[in-house]
Amino acid sequence: MANEIKLPALKENVEVVEVNAIKVAVGDVVAKDQALLEVQADKAALEVPSPLSGKVVQILVKVGDQVKIGQPFIQIDGAGGSAAPAPKAEAKPAPAAAKAPAPSPVPSSAPPAPATHAPTPAPVAVTTPPAPQAAAPVVFNTHVVASPGTRRLAREMGIDLTRVAATGPGGRLTEDDLKNHVRAQASGGGSSGVPSAPPLPRFEELGPVERQPLSAIRRATARQMAIAWSQIPHVTLDDVSDITDLEAFRKSQDGKGPKLTVTAFALKALAIALREFPAFNSSLDLHNHHLVLKKFINIGVAVDTEAGLLVPVVRDVDKKSVRHLATDLTAIAERARAKKLDSSELTGGTFTLTNLGGIGSTGFTPIVNWPEVAILGLSRGRLEPVWKNGAFVPRLMVPLSLSFDHLVIDGAAAGRFTRRVADLLENPLSMLVDA
Amino acid sequence: MQTIQTQLLVLGGGPGGYAAAFLAADRGFQVTLVDASGKLGGTCLQVGCIPSKALLHVAKLIAEAKDAPHFGVTFGAPKIDLKGVRGHWQKVTETLTKSLAKLAEARKIRFISGRGKFLDAHTVVVDDSTQITFDNAIVATGSIPAMPQAFQIGSKRVMDSTGALALEEIPGSLLVIGGGYIGLEMGTVYASLGSKVTVVEGTDGLIPNADRDLVAPLHKRLEGLFSKILLKHKVSKIEEVGKDIRATLEDPSGKPIIENFHRVLVSVGRRPATRDLGIEKTGIVLDDKGFIPVNAQRRTSVQHIYAIGDSAGEPQLAHKASFEGKVAVEALSGEPVVYDVAAVPAVIFTDPEIAWCGLTETDAQKQGIEVKKLKMPWAGSGRALTKGRTEGLTKLLVDPKTERLLGVGICGVDAGEMIGEAMLALEMGATARDLALTMHAHPTLSETVMEAAEHMYGLSVHSAPAKRG
Question: Cα separations (Å) of A255 from A3, A221, B167, B311?
């Protein structure tokens, strides 16, 4: 008896995924939990495991398709028609993501478990294995002072009460707070977080057009940029750094281990500067009027891939040598281009570095990767005449563009921070002294 | 063997199991309920909360008649018809059991009498006669009285709570092992009916998990009712000698005391009834106390199996089980529900009663939580005076910064009825001001809650100002 397998909820806030690869073929015999598909959910690649063992009868999707949660994607003949109903399909994120929301029992105060739901109460044919019902992950809302009715309402609306500002006596969160929160969100942006724009003109009337569906990565980028742009009053500050000496040293190291890129040195310089200027490694918690200073330095590095922009995160940058960072960078960029990054590698950054030097540009205004508060952009270094010791000498100058959140950082501090990074790159030996 | 298929199997028909089964049926699930006792109601209705409360009502009648001369009325000594006393609780239990059976029938719930055992994660076999294949299951098998090996001497004179409820006789003397709520409630029943009751408790106070100031008035009254309360004592051995049980007690210094009792009640706690369920066949692994581990939706490690009530963790209370039953069914229906209660009420139905919810003073001290304590002794309550029972105390624990209520403890007659207001206040996140500004009926004991709250802002009406030098 063939069972139609529906796409389980894989990741919070992800309703549509894109099929990266189909891991099985019609006629294959699959084991329970064997990967059926690899899909792109936001920027992370996830595997969709089989909820049961059996033979693949029909595959209902193809690579590149956009599949909604709950949509049937494959038909499997369950174990030669065995009567044993299969347990419900359960979203199994790819390796690292699986660590957090595991289906194992958790104490009542624990963080959200993935919500795969049992069959609808409406009578169903009892011989069919119950299909997972698509549902938003349950928001747990523990330890929030609100009436039971308000807590329930918030869960029904999919709102995490810990993110709602409470105005009631004794810090109590009221139903009005909830409504105000929703209203504020609605006016600040649609459900996707992208502010609603006026309707588009009818381009078709002007001439032939082609409509391309946005890829999962494009949608995620759009959402993230819209949040950043709406939440952060951006200021961009430019400086240049003389990397002539750094280049000479870098070149001298060619062929000795992994290639030491400018990006690797920039990461090192940033780690030093971020430790000296902790505000640049912070986030703003406006609800609680806190500045959250992070005691760890994880730097996201923008990687241009065929599929779009990805920002994998290099962890504990301050604890790694330049050579180590160079190795990490190569590995992470390769994984990004192969669409092999999982969500844990795409989250947890405290600052972002974007290097357009390989492509060109003389300067640009990068957008801060919210909830971070600053981002450094590097443009292409070029030889310029520099007045030195009474003469113009050719020096390799690289433009630095620092965008920062003016809610947190002022221009003077940004100037000092950028200058510090530039100085470190100009005098690579000083990195040794301060690292 | 009969084979059936069900959408939802509920294992255990106690307050957790039947609440879950009823709600599930109301929501359109096709439900099968299995219970080993052949009846609905579980421990609570058949051999627990309800029968003991029926007996405690009898005890209260006797106690009030005894106190009556203070109010100008004298009754003769009570004549106890044991069959009639037993009959009272049996009738109550029968009435409720029948009514539950009707409610189950009206919901078209299939009831199967027998002990269910898992064969695998989708199959349960009941008494080797019925095989049930299920899509989803809720385990609500409850708990059973703990009976340490040393007390298992094969004598009917050594009783657990079920044996004590059977009330075969009024023993001349009764040894109660364990000064928790079951021991004190049943001790009260037997003492009121005429037994000389000795309570032995290993720790330094009765009801170890309650605040000491709440236990004090009860302890004092029980000293008058019981012949002995031995704290920090142990029972090292019991043996049957003729028609008596000879108990070897150990005092705090370890010195043995040998005493004979007509009967012994062992009330040292309850353990989850999860051992012989074949639960391991489903892939679920019990924790080291024997509880079934569950998440906030009461789902086990096996996605389509839930567990609730005494089998799924502490506190082992009927109202917690029912609440969890509803959570599990709503979760099964795909609703965004979690067990996120602000508090679980606890009530000890002794005379006076003790009831509390939320943070206790003891826990606040242990956890270093700063609290403002607001006390209203019942000596200032008109209603307590009319009852001749002014030993009570109402205590609120409040967060000094936000003035939010964190916990409530009450000792006094009918404290159990008063805890509902405290629970609502806690769930609603009420502040002391909210309670102080809520009009309370006069004259009632509930006014003490309002007056305690008023202490946050000055003096309540019925409190005396401190004397000035």
Answer: 56, 36, 92, 65
Contact yes or no for B299 and A105 at CB 8 A: yes
* Residue A133 within any structural domain of the chain: no
Domain for residue A209, yes or no? no
Nearest to A118 among B136, B340, B434 (CB): B136
Interchain contact, A142 vs B338, CB within 8 Å: yes
Place of tokens 């064997």: A34
Residue A174: CB atoms within 10 Å: 17
Domain ranges of chain B: 2-144+271-332, 149-268, 346-457
- Residue A93: C-alpha distances to residues A24, A33, B334 (Å): 18, 11, 21
CB contact under 8 A, A126 and B404: no
Residue A369 in domain: yes
Contact A115 B337 (CB under 8 A): no
What distance in Å separates residue A100's CA from the closest CA in chain B? 14
Contact of B155 with chain A, judged by CB distance below 8 Å, is answered with no
pTM of the model: 0.62
CA dist list (Å): B402 to A151, A382, A406, B399: 20, 61, 33, 6
Q: What is the mean pLDDT of residues B83-98?
A: 97
For residues A237 and A94, membership in a common domain is answered with: no
Contact B375, B393 (CB under 8 A): yes
What CATH number did the domain enclosing A51 receive? 2.40.50.100
The verdict on A335 and A395 lying in the same domain is yes
Q: Which CATH superfamily is domain B149-268 in?
A: FAD/NAD(P)-binding domain (3.50.50.60)
Provide the residue count of chain B.
469
Q: How many domains does chain A have?
A: 3
Give the gap in angstroms from C-alpha B304 to the nearest C-alpha of chain A: 7
Give the residue with greater pLDDT, A1 vs B408: B408
Q: For chain A, what is the mean pLDDT?
A: 81
Q: Which residues of B431-454 are buried (b: 16+ CB within 10 A; e: fewer)?
A: bbbbbbeeebeeebbbbbbbbbbb
A322 belongs to a structural domain: yes
| Beta-carbon contacts below 8 Å between A and B | 133
Average pLDDT estimate for B28-44? 97
Q: Which residues does chain B have within 8 Å of residue A49's beta carbon, measured at their own beta carbons?
A: none
On whether any CB of chain A is under 8 Å from the CB of B144, the answer is no
| pLDDT confidence bin for A197, thresholds 50/70/90 | low
What pLDDT is attached to residue B30?
A: 97
Kindly state whether residues A33 and A166 are assigned to the same domain. Answer: no
Strands B110-113 and B31-35: parallel
User: And the tokens for A58?
Assistant: 């029909």
Cβ of A147 within 8 Å of Cβ of B24? The answer is no
* pLDDT confidence tier of residue A99, bands split at 50, 70 and 90: very low
Element (H, E) at B96: helix B82-106
Q: What is the CATH number of domain B346-457?
A: 3.30.390.30
pLDDT score recorded for residue B49: 96
Nearest CB neighbour to A171, from listed B333, B337, B404: B404
Q: Is the ipTM of this complex over 0.85?
A: no
**Which CATH number does the domain B2-144+271-332 belong to among 3.40.50.1910, 3.20.20.70, 3.50.50.60, 3.40.50.2000?**
3.50.50.60
Query: Under DSSP, is residue B303 helix (H, G, I), strand (E, B) or coil?
Result: coil
**Is-contact B325 B19, C-beta < 8 A?**
yes
